[in-house]
Amino acid sequence: MDKIFESADRYLARSDWKDIALLKFCLFSMGLFAGSYAVKKEHKQAVRAAAAGVFAVTYVPLMYKYYLVVKEMIEEEQ
Question: Structurally, how many domains does the chain consist of?
Answer without folding.
Answer: 1
